[in-house]
Amino acid sequence: MTVGSAEPAHAFKLFGINLFGSDEEEAADVIDPVRYSTTLNLTTATGDLKDRLETTSALKSDEKQPVSGDLGLVIKAREDRDRLVAVLYEEARYGAVVRITIAGQEIDRLPPVPVFDHSQPVPVVVTVEPGPEFALGKVTLEGDAAGIDPESVGLEPGNKAGSVSIIQAGERIVRDLKKQGRPLSKIGKRDVIADHATNTVAVTISATSGPVAPFGTVTVRGSEGVDQDFIRRYSRLDRRETYSPEQLKKAGDRLRELGVFSSVTIREADALAPDGSLPLSIEVADGKFRYFGFGAEFSSIDGAGVSGYWGHRNLFGQAESLRIEGQVSGIGATTDLNTFDYSAGIIYSEPGFKIPEMTFDASLRAKRETPDVYTANTITALATLTYELSEQDKVKGGGEIAWSESEDAFGRNRYLTFSLPIEFERDARDNKLEPTEGYRLTASAKPSYETYRGSIFSSFEGSISGYLGLGEENRVVLAGRLSAGTIVGTDNLQDIPTIRRFYMGGGGSVRGYTFREISPYDAQNRALGGRSYTVANLEARVKINDKIGIVPFFDVGTVSTEIAPDFSDIRMGAGIGVRYATPFGPLRLDIALPLNRYPGGSQYGIYAGIGQSF
After folding, report:
1. pLDDT recorded at residue 1
2. Domain 135-208 has what CATH class?
3. What beta strand segments (E) does 332-392 contain?
4. What region holds the Bacterial surface antigen (D15) domain (predicted)?
5. What's the whole-model pTM score?
C-alpha cells in the first residue's frame, strides 16, 4: 500500500474548454511540452469540402494544446496528413496534394531527431491542393463476382468515384454472394487506378464465394438460467437449412425479443465442418428475470390512472413469463370511489410451446368499469395459441369464459358467455415503435354462446393502419387507420353482454369525447351500445427535431344498432399532440375538441400516455 499527498487542482477543463485555470497549468501535465501555431491553406477548396478539411485537421483544432517533444509534433503532423488524404479520397480527389511544413521544413525532409526553436510557438503550415474530382471509369468485377451488375452495387461509370462508395461496393458484393447461401464469400482483391489525364478511376474487384452450405452444429454459451436446448431450438438455426444472413439476423432478433437476455451474439465459424456445414455459436448473457414497475396516464375527461405490475421472465427455465398487474383509473374525475375503474390480472405466456413457432398464453382478469354510460363487473378467463405463419403473419385462436354483471339502459343483468376467439394479424411496418412505412392489418372473429339467455351471436372486427414517410429522413409521416366491427346473431340487443356491445370515444378511438360516449341512445337519452361501428383516424407526425414532434390529427366515428353502420350519427374530433422521443417509445400528449359534441357532453379532452396512438 502506498500513501501519498494530494496536490491541489489548478485547472479544470470541460469539453476542451478551461472553466478555470490556464493553458500553462495544463501544459504542466505534458512531458516536454512544445507549443505550435497552425496556418491552414486550403487554396481552391470550397463549400462542404472546405468544412470537412477544416474539421479533420487535428493540428488546427488542437493547436492550443501542447504536444510532447519536437518528435511528437512531427508525428502529429504525419497523422494529420494521413487524415486529410483520407478525406480527399472519400471526396474522389485522387490528384490532391497535401504539404505540411514545420518551421519552414517539409516533414519528410526533417532529421530523425528534429530540434525546433521554442522561443515562440513553432510555426506549422498545412497546404491542401484538392485537385479535380474524379469519376468512375471502367469497372471490372472478376472471379465469383463476375456475374454481378456493377450498377447494382453502386459502381455506375460516370458517377463520383469516392473511396467509401468503392469500399461499400465490395461489401455489397459479399452480401449478395452470401444471400446465395455461400457463407465463406470474401473479397479477393480491390484495385483502384486513377488516370490523371482523364480524371477517371478504373476499379477492379474480385471475389471468391465458396460452396453453398447449410447451417451446421449450433453451440450455445453464456446462459446459466435459460435452458440451452431451448435457446438452440427457439433460434430455429438447428434445422440445417441453407445458410442465410437474413435468417441469422432474424434468429438474433427472435432471441432478444424473449426479454431474458441482456445481450445476444451469433458467431459464424471461419471454416466449414467436414460434412460441409457451417458451425454456429450463440453467445448470450442472462438479463434480470424478475422485474416490477408502475405506470400512469391522464385524461382531462376520464381522470388519471395508475398501474403497477410484477413479473418473472424465466419461470421454469425456458423463457416462460408470469405477470401480475393491477390498475385504478378515473381518479380525479370524481371523488366517489365506487365510480373508479379497477382491474387486476395474472398473465402467463410460454413461447416455443411444443414448436418454436407456437406461443401459449393464458390469463385471468377481474375488472370493474364505470364509464358514464354503464357499470360492469367482469371476470374473464382466456387461453390462446398463437402460430407464426411467417415473419409478418400470425394467427391466434383459443377459448374464453366471461362472467359479467352490468347495469345499463336495459337495467341490471348478468351474463355468462363462452367464446372461441380467432384472430389474424399481418404486421408489415418497418418499425413497431415509430413506423414510417408499411401497414398493419388485423381481422378477428368471436363466435359466442350466452348461457343465461341461450343466445348465440358472433362479433367480427377488422382494422388496417398505414404509414407514409415524406421528406428527408421521414421528417413527416402520414398515418391513417380504419377500423370496423359488427355483431350478428341474436335480434335482441339486450341478449348481447354490455361489455361486448360497441361504444366509441376516448383516447383509443375518437378523441375529444368521453370514454365510450359515442353510442346509439334511446328516447330517455340512455346509451344502448351498438351492433356495428366504423372509426377512421388520420395523423400527420411532424418532427421538429430528433426529440420533439407535433401531431395534428382528425378522428371520425359512428356506432349503430344495426349490423351495418347507417351513418346517421357521425361524431368527429380534431386536435394536436406533442411527442417526445425516448428509447422505449414516444411520450404522447394530445389535446382534442369534439367537433359536434353531445348536449352536455365533454368540451375537450387531454390525453397522455406512452407510444403513438396507433
Report:
1. 33
2. alpha beta
3. 341-351, 358-369, 375-388
4. 314-614
5. 0.78
